[in-house]
């Protein structure tokens, strides 16, 4: 057979393979357990997990059911990756940057200070090679990752006192997680690791001066404005936080192709949906907070520049110690720089005009 | 039976109905034809239609197949709505603003000058009531709409001469479609309606002075920079253009619930995917265009303000003549104004810092 005929045969074979499912094979019933790293009280971010489960069920006519558990119901919120890796649960709903201690490069799966917007992050994942890079990292934990949500830019946090200069950050006792913590500490902030439930009383007693949380809609529920009412913007430290679905690799391989597609599609829709919900609800919550006497304040340009420099230094620190981090950072930064340029030329510039000319 | 018991019975009945599909009914094989309003040469925007068809096929194990046709293969590019309405084809891939002549309010389904970003548009659709409003409009054409893609902000267009002042727009012969055309004409632009294929020779001969098209990646293919090399930004006239899937209402009702879900999920993923592709490719194309001697120019603040005022006037013109337009515009504007404010406080402000401090 000539090469040309082989190719023709190959095409015909492919067509036959596509037609095969019409023989109506019945699909198996599959039940999974998925735990989120987030509490039920955050209907935005935890809601992403239920969105995925509901969509998957509908897409498979109820044959692939994922039972959703909130943080702590099976394992602790930050043990989700471990639990999926060893198969305690088939799937998890979490954020890569929680696992900075296991593998620092996973922070790029979620977002880093002075990083990408949700839109830029999606472009990096889908057409910039980001998803391949991230899946290579997660493979070392025997899990497959699918991006499944984004909070949008998070606010700068709640501060008991006004922060006018870079010096005002020195000695400040602030709760800030992971990579953010390492940036703030470069500016003299005394970073605290305390459980979420202890934040309110600590601010009230004055043993804590500041906390960074999410945005108006989520923050309002915690009532932080009652004990620290200087609310800082803009969210340069977190222009987006991308959530991820993670599935145990062996369990993912056992899924029929159709169910795997259902998972991917459900996560894509959850990705779109979560940001839309945050955008619609955050501005309403911000209005309520302002009516409750919250002081909306903006970082000075000097403070943002100091944070940007500290971020670059923290990146270099991690890159010097970790070749994987260095490789991912280089790839990520090239794409990010291009996207910032494109936004500065077109989309961002148009938004800038509208922000200045609201009429 | 008391009302309370009836409710309980209702719930129990609902649970039984959910369990029913486990009886393994075999799903029907369905073949649809879908025509796009876009040519195959635009792999970005036309590609959205093939993305939808491929995803739907995979999600239904090949049982629901949608055959995709490009502009003109069955009906003309702007006859897609008609063809779906009367059932010539089951589905279409198009943009609402093409049908401004049939129903002006459909422009809000796509985007209007000084309008919403793709992200804000998604928020309006999913959590702002926009989708319900739009589906009510499309219902009058017997079609169901599903948002399925966005180009992001489009560039300001190609101009043979530099446009320094508002006066430079007077008498300019420009190809600009639909609502955009009515805004430009308020500033003295002589808006031309000529087929896409005639644009290049008209610019070359000098019988046309300017054209607005899409963005660097799509525009580069047409080679417009060779005959009009002043390329204007930012895209205030089109901060986003949302594409839509439309399905014939009767045909949509015939679909099993699972197939309908597959369509919705496929469109959501196509929505996310198209913008990611544009963002990744546009900046690369812009670099190539700049290397080919294109003059990247920015609208002056005066020109943007004049365009914004003309847009507000055009909105009022349409609203005065059409109660539906007035109703949708009011709803849309309240949401848009809130979103612009939120962006000015947080996400957009963070992006603005990065644009100014790229280091």
Automatic annotation (TrEMBL), chains A, B:
GO terms for cellular component: tripartite ATP-independent periplasmic transporter complex. GO terms for molecular function: metal ion binding. InterPro entries: DctP_fam (IPR018389), SBP_TakP-like (IPR026289), TRAP_DctP_sf (IPR038404). Na(+) binds at residue 213. Keywords: Metal-binding, Signal. GO terms for biological process: transmembrane transport. Residues 1-24 form the signal peptide. Gene3D superfamilies: Bacterial extracellular solute-binding protein, family 7 (3.40.190.170), Periplasmic binding protein-like II (3.40.190.10). Substrate binds at residues 154, 175, 212, 238. It holds the Pfam family DctP. This is ABC transporter substrate-binding protein. The lineage of its organism: Bacteria, Pseudomonadati, Pseudomonadota, Alphaproteobacteria, Hyphomicrobiales.
